[in-house]
Each structure stands twice: as structure tokens, then as C-alpha cells.
Amino acid sequence: MISDVLAEASEKMNKAVDAAKDDFGTVRTGRANPALFQKVLVDYYGTPTPLQQLASMVNQEARTLLITPFDKSALKDIEKAIAGAHHLGASVGNDGSVIRATLPELTEERRKDFVKIVRDKAEQARVSLRNVRRKAKDDLDALTEVGEDEVARAEKELEASTKAHVDAIDDALKRKESELLEV
């Protein structure tokens, strides 16, 4: 029973760390990267659809991404969605078959704004980890057929696991901050 609770908590914490790293990837550094457009949703026939399901994306230059829609009728919708993604600040143009999204040069002020965004995402991930820990602790406390010593040992193990996962998020945050502030 105790091992099941700890295994479930560890699995959920791993997913929270992975989600945080994915979120960090959506914050741009100096280059155009298809991962930046991961969270862009296009209104495709009335349904919000992720951009990567509607088009292929290729780096054309350092700050330019070439987006080729699979369905040419979605060109205007894709262009509108990218232009509406204010966190990217991309200027968008199309030639009738492909879209070119050019990202502006990063200023020092913009880099600091991105660092704030990344720190906020890291804090959200830490809160998620603490919520998983709280639920696992409640589940451990609810176990009646095991001794108090075993529960106390399991709680220490849960704390160690939580600390390790928080440290993983902090390490990813430090790497992303240094990447953002690098000129």
C-alpha cells in the first residue's frame, strides 16, 4: 500500500517536472524554434487545434520560421493565430502557400520579461509538486492497516522525493535563465 502511494506520487511529480521543462521550451531565446509555437491554437473549422497538427514548421533563418500548412484553406486562420500570439511578438506574412513568421530581435528589457515568465512557470510547477505531495501525505495518513513507524518512514521518503523534483525544476530554471540572459 505504501509503495503504491509513493510510486503514484513519484510518477505524478515526474510528469510535473516534464511539463515544466516543456513550458520552458515555449519561451523563446535568440533563435526561432518550432517549440515556441507549440502552444499556439488555431481556430480550424470552429475547433481550437494545435498549430503542429495543421502545418509543418522549418527554421529558415535564425529568427525566421517557415510554416507550410497541410491544408491551404487554413492559411489565413494560421496566420491570424500566430499574429494573435502576443508572447511571440512575431511579424507574419504569407505568399499564398507558406507563412513566414519573423521574430524580433531580443532587447534586454524583453529578455528580463521572459525571465519573469519562466520564473512564474517554475513556481507553478513547484505548486503542482506540493499539491502532489499533500495528496500523497493524506493518502498515507488514511492508511490504517500499517504502523505509524512505516508511515513516518514513507513520509520522509516522500519529502526526499519532493525535494529532488523541486531541485530538478530549479536546475532547469537556472539553465533557461542563463540561456535567456546570454547575448
TrEMBL record:
<dbReference type="InterPro" id="IPR036191">
    <property type="entry name" value="RRF_sf"/>
</dbReference>
<dbReference type="InterPro" id="IPR023584">
    <property type="entry name" value="Ribosome_recyc_fac_dom"/>
</dbReference>
<protein>
    <recommendedName>
        <fullName>Ribosome-recycling factor</fullName>
    </recommendedName>
</protein>
<comment type="similarity">
    <text>Belongs to the RRF family.</text>
</comment>
<feature type="domain" description="Ribosome recycling factor">
    <location>
        <begin position="21"/>
        <end position="181"/>
    </location>
</feature>
<comment type="function">
    <text>Responsible for the release of ribosomes from messenger RNA at the termination of protein biosynthesis. May increase the efficiency of translation by recycling ribosomes from one round of translation to another.</text>
</comment>
<dbReference type="InterPro" id="IPR002661">
    <property type="entry name" value="Ribosome_recyc_fac"/>
</dbReference>
<keyword id="KW-0648">Protein biosynthesis</keyword>
<keyword id="KW-0963">Cytoplasm</keyword>
<dbReference type="Pfam" id="PF01765">
    <property type="entry name" value="RRF"/>
</dbReference>
